[in-house]
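Ligand-bound model needed. pyridoxal-5'-phosphate.
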Amino acid sequence: MVDLKAQYNRIKSEVDRAIQDVIDNTAFINGPEVGAFANELQNYLGVKHVIPCANGTDALQIAMMALGFKPGDEVITASFTYVATAEVIALLGLKPVLVDVHPDTFNLNVEAVEAAITDKTVAIVPVHLFGQCSDMEPLMALAKKHNLHVIEDTAQAIGSKYTFSDGSSAFAGTMGSIGATSFFPSKNLGCYGDGGALFTNNDEYAASMRVIANHGQRVRYYHDSIGVNSRLDTIQAAILRIKLRHLDQYSAARRRLADAYDEAFGNSGKLVVPFRSPNSSHVFHQYTMLCKGISRDALKEYLEANGVPAMVYYPVPLHMQKAYTDPRYNAGDFPVTEQLCREVISLPMHTEMQEDQLQHIIQTVKAFLNS
Ligand SMILES: *Cc1c(COP(=O)(O)O)cnc(C)c1O
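Prediction:
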């Protein structure tokens, strides 16, 4: 699905030198690269604060802790997402309130969000799924009207840009109260292990998140609040500094590959290629199609038998997961999500696709469609 080895080979000398420098300096924890990376990412995103942490799941958790949510508070998120989003809500004793997504963008349906708001709602967590921003303008307006926080799950959409109706634009993760992202190796900006970060333009939230990520201590060995231990390793920060310089190129390579897939499958009548939102650029964390009138599972099996990896993100909606079953929710409650779980298939998507590999993928998919 991804080719991290080929990507590494292109920047190997730079990366190897950066890692060796960290080892030579032995500043493994909170070394200078961590702050330098945070500054560089701040400049790239045009956001006031970037707070590195250990992974994307921690980032979501720290955001919700910093905003002071109390057990029983309701947090609205999408039923079609990776589990981490709902997991941290539940872990903090908050109540995950799931809503359905749009059949075109796979992102939060703003009308469904509005219908789910109660007097216990404290936040909305849009997940910018597969690399495209949720519809932030109406979502932010709704949040403002009901005095709710917006925490953007930007794990799949770093570098994606949303354009508002007044012509202004902003990067994914910089529009809500807080944005949370992941540097898991296969994400669009991935390190060589685990990593994550928080984004905010609010000084108070930033200060609070820094304290929470560091055991709740403002001054060493004085703990003002219950925190967590969540740091980005210096080695990972050093690698991310290098990869950030290539992020635009990486996004462009992903987009070129998506264009080629679109061209190959857009008129097949059996596969629906990804929708391109007029309000958001797409950084194609995944290239995800819908199977119409053909068996998704048969296509996946055929591809795999012919040496083409394919994945289903996600096969089971959150409300049908054993850990998240809830008397409030039943099969059929989120028809779009449930349909997506039956129809989606993702093709290999990365920055290093070779022409012969691309042709093999396209021809294999076409052979199945014509069989
Ligand atoms: C990857 C991912 C996360 C979690 O990131 P980790 O760094 O693996 O903890 C959260 N939300 C979404 C949508 C993701 O894709």
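The chain is about 40% helix and 15% strand.
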